[in-house]
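Extended Data, panel c. Modelled sequence:
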Amino acid sequence: MENSLKGLMLAAGTIITCIIVTLGFYIAGEAKNTATGSANQINKLNVEFMENDKVIYDGATVSGTEVVNVIKKMQSEKIGVYVENGTTNTYYGYNFNLTTGELGSKTANVYTAAIDEGTGTYINPYGSFKGVVIRNSNNIITGIIFK
């Protein structure tokens, strides 16, 4: 009787140990999934925060002065600004494909050409321009169009 009781206690202990180990692995797996999901959300928020200074122009109507300010601001970034001023269409910063968003070569145009009234690239500070943000196949903003 005593041996059978010890055998039952050993079996019960083994089963309880297996259940606890299984629960531990299950909880660890759930924690990993939660951590991965949280990391993805943080990365997404980080990208949105970093793009905020460009996304604000998507669909917005801005003045010519603001367009010139955008050109100045984006000169140090790897992004293109395309402006249709009614006379000529000009890229500033980098050329980019207006449809696919693929980035091209760096242009020689600088914002000073946009404020020189004697050039065809002059941007009227009182003009009205509608912005469109262009993304490439990797969903990265490569250009802003003002027309």
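The first helix runs from residue 2 to 55. This feature is highlighted in the accompanying rendering.
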